[in-house]
Structures are given as structure tokens and as C-alpha cells.
Write a structure and sequence with these properties.
alpha/beta; TIM Barrel; six-stranded parallel sheet; 6 helices; 6 strands; globular; Luciferase-like_dom; oxidoreductase; flavoprotein
Length: 182
């Protein structure tokens, strides 16, 4: 098992993480507050966001998970993640110290492969090796159009565990583990 998965799961093979944003209140009272503040549906109140992420880190949660929702689909029923995944993880890397940072999961058919790989490697370096990279084909009809990119990632992954051929990126001591879900 990759050392990061061992770190995530611990000696008992189980851990608890949090899916972000931490402060999106879907209750009736939360929705009334959102409307009173003029925030669109699904956009969280981030006033306490940094403090809550730090608290999760200091409280021993193993991972913060960020969903990748590239395009809002009003027919899907939720706004889900409102921030770009890798920018968000870069921010979280800067305000936390120990908690692992995961993508659940990056929607590859909506992304340019090389930029995705570079972004993932950047977050992994900025977080000092705390990135857990999950990738998928998407769960919304508009995300399922181009499955060829899933094959592209498979061709880029190397048996050594590296995300991409070394001729395109500097050699790295600790390789990022990648989870692929179809």
C-alpha cells in the first residue's frame, strides 16, 4: 500500500475526513440566511472557513476532501463545489499543517491533461506531500462527454507511480498516489 494511503487509513484501516466546504448550511434557517445575505444557491458562507479547516487539522481529522464540479448544472439539484479544485487545495495547503488534502474527484473529461498534472504536482509540493489525487469521468451528463481523457491519464501514469513522464516535469522524491474511478 502506498505510504499516503497508510497515513490516511492509519493502523486500523479506517479514518474520518471532511468534505468541503465545511460551512454550507442546507437547513431551512441556513437557506433563509443565504437569501438574506444575497448569496446564490450553493454558495457557502466562508466567514469561518479558514478557522474551521484549521480546527479540523488540529483535531486530528485525516483528510479534507474537495469535489470538482467544473460547470454548474441547474438540473442536477445542487451547486456543489463553487471553487476551482486545485486553487482551493493550494489555499488549504497554506493554512493547514498535517491534514491530507484530497480531490473527490477531479473530472478529467472537463480538464486539459497536462495542466491537471501540473496543478496536482504543484499542490502536492506546496502541501509537502499531503495530496490524495482522485480522478473520475464525472457524474453529471455534461461531464461524461469525453472519456478519451481517462485513457490519456492511464497512458501518462508510469509503473513507478509517477504521474507523468519525467521528461516533462522535474524528478520528485515522493510520488503522488492516484485513484482512478470510472
Amino acid at each position: 500500500m502506498h505510504p499516503r494511503f497508510q497515513r490516511l487509513l492509519g493502523s486500523n484501516g479506517f479514518s474520518i475526513g471532511l468534505e468541503l466546504p465545511l460551512d454550507n448550511d442546507w437547513s431551512s434557517a441556513g437557506q433563509r440566511l443565504r437569501m438574506a445575505e444575497g448569496r446564490p444557491f450553493g454558495v457557502p458562507d466562508l466567514k469561518q472557513h479558514a478557522a474551521m479547516a484549521r480546527l479540523a487539522d488540529k483535531s486530528g481529522f485525516r483528510a479534507l476532501w474537495v469535489r470538482d464540479v467544473p460547470i454548474y448544472d441547474p438540473n442536477f439539484g445542487d451547486a456543489a463545489q463553487v471553487f476551482e479544485t486545485f486553487s482551493y487545495l493550494g489555499y488549504l495547503a497554506g493554512i493547514t499543517e498535517n491534514i491530507m488534502l484530497g480531490t473527490a474527484a477531479v473530472v478529467l473529461p472537463m480538464r486539459q491533461p497536462w495542466l491537471t498534472l501540473k496543478s496536482a504536482n504543484s499542490v502536492d509540493e506546496l502541501s509537502e506531500g499531503r495530496l490524495l489525487l482522485g480522478v473520475a469521468s464525472g457524474d453529471r451528463p455534461m461531464e461524461l462527454r469525453n472519456r478519451l481523457l481517462m485513457q490519456c491519464l492511464g497512458n501518462l501514469a508510469q509503473p513507478s507511480g509517477a504521474l507523468c513522464p519525467s521528461r516533462y516535469f522535474p524528478a520528485r522524491k515522493n510520488k503522488t498516489p492516484t485513484c482512478i474511478r470510472r
